[in-house]
Design brief:
Length: about 130
Protein backbone atom coordinates (compact mmCIF):
# COMPACT_ATOMS: atom_id res chain seq x y z
CA UNK A 1 0.00 0.00 0.00
CA UNK A 2 2.89 2.35 0.79
CA UNK A 3 4.26 1.89 -2.72
CA UNK A 4 0.88 2.77 -4.21
CA UNK A 5 0.77 6.09 -2.30
CA UNK A 6 4.40 6.74 -3.08
CA UNK A 7 3.77 6.12 -6.76
CA UNK A 8 0.63 8.31 -6.60
CA UNK A 9 2.67 11.11 -4.97
CA UNK A 10 5.36 10.83 -7.64
CA UNK A 11 2.75 11.07 -10.39
CA UNK A 12 1.21 14.19 -8.80
CA UNK A 13 4.66 15.75 -8.42
CA UNK A 14 5.47 14.94 -12.05
CA UNK A 15 2.17 16.41 -13.26
CA UNK A 16 2.68 19.47 -11.08
CA UNK A 17 6.15 20.01 -12.55
CA UNK A 18 4.80 19.64 -16.06
CA UNK A 19 1.99 22.10 -15.32
CA UNK A 20 4.49 24.60 -13.92
CA UNK A 21 6.71 24.07 -16.93
CA UNK A 22 3.77 24.72 -19.27
CA UNK A 23 2.79 27.83 -17.30
CA UNK A 24 6.41 29.00 -17.28
CA UNK A 25 6.65 28.41 -21.02
CA UNK A 26 3.44 30.37 -21.63
CA UNK A 27 4.75 33.21 -19.44
CA UNK A 28 8.06 33.20 -21.31
CA UNK A 29 6.19 33.36 -24.65
CA UNK A 30 4.05 36.25 -23.38
CA UNK A 31 7.18 38.06 -22.16
CA UNK A 32 8.89 37.56 -25.52
CA UNK A 33 5.82 38.96 -27.31
CA UNK A 34 5.78 41.95 -24.97
CA UNK A 35 9.48 42.58 -25.64
CA UNK A 36 8.84 42.50 -29.40
CA UNK A 37 5.99 44.98 -29.01
CA UNK A 38 8.09 47.34 -26.88
CA UNK A 39 11.02 47.17 -29.30
CA UNK A 40 8.70 47.96 -32.23
CA UNK A 41 7.24 50.87 -30.29
CA UNK A 42 10.66 52.30 -29.43
CA UNK A 43 11.85 51.87 -33.02
CA UNK A 44 8.79 53.73 -34.32
CA UNK A 45 9.67 56.88 -32.33
CA UNK A 46 11.51 59.28 -34.65
CA UNK A 47 15.06 60.09 -33.57
CA UNK A 48 14.22 63.82 -33.69
CA UNK A 49 11.65 63.24 -30.97
CA UNK A 50 13.98 61.11 -28.89
CA UNK A 51 16.83 63.62 -29.26
CA UNK A 52 14.71 66.83 -29.21
CA UNK A 53 16.04 68.07 -32.54
CA UNK A 54 14.83 69.67 -35.74
CA UNK A 55 16.46 70.45 -39.08
CA UNK A 56 17.25 73.76 -40.75
CA UNK A 57 18.64 74.95 -44.04
CA UNK A 58 19.38 78.38 -45.46
CA UNK A 59 18.65 80.17 -48.73
CA UNK A 60 20.30 83.18 -50.32
CA UNK A 61 17.46 84.90 -52.18
CA UNK A 62 19.40 88.14 -52.66
CA UNK A 63 19.34 90.02 -55.93
CA UNK A 64 22.63 91.74 -55.01
CA UNK A 65 24.78 88.87 -56.33
CA UNK A 66 26.57 88.55 -52.96
CA UNK A 67 27.57 85.41 -51.14
CA UNK A 68 26.47 85.04 -47.51
CA UNK A 69 28.04 83.38 -44.51
CA UNK A 70 25.41 81.86 -42.24
CA UNK A 71 26.20 82.24 -38.53
CA UNK A 72 24.19 79.95 -36.27
CA UNK A 73 24.70 80.64 -32.58
CA UNK A 74 27.74 82.76 -33.48
CA UNK A 75 29.49 80.08 -35.56
CA UNK A 76 29.76 80.05 -39.37
CA UNK A 77 27.84 76.97 -40.49
CA UNK A 78 27.56 77.59 -44.20
CA UNK A 79 28.41 79.88 -47.05
CA UNK A 80 25.60 80.30 -49.55
CA UNK A 81 26.03 81.68 -53.05
CA UNK A 82 23.39 83.91 -54.69
CA UNK A 83 20.20 81.91 -55.31
CA UNK A 84 21.88 79.03 -53.47
CA UNK A 85 20.82 76.65 -50.74
CA UNK A 86 22.86 75.27 -47.87
CA UNK A 87 23.00 71.71 -46.67
CA UNK A 88 20.41 70.64 -44.11
CA UNK A 89 21.61 70.71 -40.51
CA UNK A 90 20.25 68.89 -37.47
CA UNK A 91 19.98 71.27 -34.52
CA UNK A 92 18.77 71.13 -30.94
CA UNK A 93 15.23 72.32 -30.40
CA UNK A 94 14.79 75.66 -28.66
CA UNK A 95 16.08 79.19 -29.14
CA UNK A 96 19.07 80.04 -31.34
CA UNK A 97 20.65 83.08 -32.98
CA UNK A 98 20.91 83.47 -36.74
CA UNK A 99 22.85 86.00 -38.76
CA UNK A 100 23.37 86.29 -42.51
CA UNK A 101 26.64 88.12 -43.13
CA UNK A 102 28.19 89.18 -46.43
CA UNK A 103 31.15 86.84 -46.96
CA UNK A 104 34.61 88.24 -46.18
CA UNK A 105 33.14 91.24 -44.36
CA UNK A 106 31.59 92.06 -40.99
CA UNK A 107 28.53 93.53 -42.74
CA UNK A 108 25.17 92.04 -41.88
CA UNK A 109 23.13 91.15 -44.94
CA UNK A 110 19.88 90.98 -42.96
CA UNK A 111 18.66 91.75 -39.48
CA UNK A 112 19.75 89.08 -36.98
CA UNK A 113 16.99 86.77 -35.78
CA UNK A 114 16.33 84.35 -32.93
CA UNK A 115 14.61 81.30 -34.37
CA UNK A 116 12.97 78.86 -31.98
CA UNK A 117 13.24 75.33 -33.37
CA UNK A 118 10.35 72.97 -32.70
CA UNK A 119 11.01 69.27 -32.17
CA UNK A 120 11.00 67.36 -35.49
CA UNK A 121 10.51 70.54 -37.54
CA UNK A 122 12.18 71.14 -40.90
CA UNK A 123 12.58 74.88 -41.40
CA UNK A 124 14.37 77.12 -43.86
CA UNK A 125 15.59 80.65 -43.37
CA UNK A 126 16.42 83.10 -46.11
CA UNK A 127 17.91 86.50 -46.63
CA UNK A 128 17.09 88.66 -49.62
CA UNK A 129 18.97 91.75 -48.39
Amino acid sequence: MKCKYLLYGMVLTFLSCNLNTAADQKKAEEDAELRKTLIALVQSIPSCQTNSTGTVYFLNTSNTNRTYDILWDGVVWATVTPNGRSSTFTVASGAHTLLFRITNTSTQACTPSTPNIAICSNTYYFCSG
